[in-house]
Every structure is written in structure tokens, then in C-alpha cells.
Amino acid sequence: MRKNSVKNTRVNSEVMKVLAEIIRELKDPRVGMLTSVVDVQISPDLKTGKVWISSYGDAEEQARCLEGIKSAEGFIRNRLAKELNLRNTPQLTFIMDDSIAYGVSMSKKIREVIGEDD
User: Fold this and answer.
1) 41 bridge partner residues
2) Rounded CA gap, 22 and 1, in Å?
3) In the 3-class helix/strand/coil scheme, how is the chain assigned residue by residue?
4) Exposed e or buried b for every residue in 57-86, given b needs 16+ CB within 10 A?
5) Do residues 67 and 30 touch, judged by C-beta distance below 8 A?
């Protein structure tokens, strides 16, 4: 199975949808309400996967959020196995995604440059 096959794309989107629900239901105070799943990439053999998450707040709050999610990794994997009927339940690696903050800072810089030209 190729990495970008139709089946793998469907598995990624379904895992992303279920993970978003599971993370929203976590009762850990470190995980904020404005935490979302940005992207999921599950390997073609369904054994491993990477999950990019985004959280509102400064770097310290984001680190605490990531720590809270990593501490609930077993619970998340258990719930994922119950929700999805996959041959293997993937071992997930959570990564904090800072692309939204990067995009905002780049937009701000672009506006500053355009403002200087006028």
C-alpha cells in the first residue's frame, strides 16, 4: 500500500476525527479547551502514527498541553482501538504544531513591509 493511497487517506481522516473527540473529552487540566488536531499521518502498516496538535497559548502553556496529552497516551490509544476497527492500533507520537503562530507572525511582517512601502 502506497503512503498516499486512498485507503491511507481515509484512515488518516478517520483517526483525526476520533482523536479530536477523545482529546476534547480529556479531563487533564493541562490540556486546554482550545486544543485541536491539525494533522495525522498513520504509516501504511498501521503500526505507528504522527499526530500534530495545536493549542492556544504561549510556549509554556503549549508544553504543558503536550505533556498532558503524552501522559494520557495509553488512554487515548485504548479509546482509539474501541472507536475504530483497525487491524492494528497505531502507536502515536504527538507533536506540537506551531504553523498557525508562524503564519500569524509572517502575516504581521508582510503587513509591516507593505505599510513601509506606502
Assistant:
1) 50
2) 28
3) CCCCCHHHHHHHHHHHHHHHHHHHHCCCCCCCCCEEEEEEEECCCCCEEEEEEEECCCHHHHHHHHHHHHHCHHHHHHHHHHHCCCCCCCEEEEEECCHHHHHHHHHHHHHHHHHHHC
4) eeeeebebbbebbeebeeebeebbeeebee
5) yes
Torsion region of 46: left, alpha or beta (phi above 0 gives left; psi -120 to 50 gives alpha)? left
Q: What is the CATH number of domain 6-117?
A: 3.30.300.20
pTM over 0.85? The answer is: no
Residue range 17-75, pLDDT digits in tens: 999 999 999 998 999 888 989 999 999 888 999 999 998 888 898 899 999 999 999 99
